[in-house]
Design brief:
The protein is mainly alpha-helical. About 75% of the residues lie in helices and about 0% in strands. Helix 2 crosses helix 3 (about 70-90). The chain starts with a helix and ends with a helix.
Length: about 170
Amino acid sequence: MSGASEFLVRAILIGAGATIVMDVWAVVLKRCFGVPAPDFALVGRWIGHMPSGRLVHDSIRRAPPVRGEAAIGWGAHYAIGILFAALLLAIMGLGWARHPTLAPALIVGLATVAAPFLVMQPGMGAGIASSKTPNPTAARLRSLATHAVFGVGLYVSAVVVAWAMA
């Protein structure tokens, strides 16, 4: 397999795996602690309004629904996870993917919280780092924890993929 093909395969598998780990975390939080799971249909609604030039909303919940918003949101969720895995591989190289270590994956996972803090939340009406939500501190901590779990998922997925591709 060429280096480019290996990079692509690993990015897809590691990114999708890490995103699954993050989704399982959300289910555990919801079932055990009553923490609402993210509504990716709202992400799809936000993305669905972008072609018409609407990038920022006062409240994405009050924006008109977009056809296929749930599929758009879930697809974006996994595509973003794959892109973040590709970023990790671009930084660390295929050598890391073949022999993964936790620290780089965790650092990248935590760094990815910048995307919701600085792009998604403001665009969807929640303000920078959830500043316009009823409890910004709780929302920020939940985002940080979720992205830490994503980082652990990057590592665990990389270990599984390294084993499977050995």
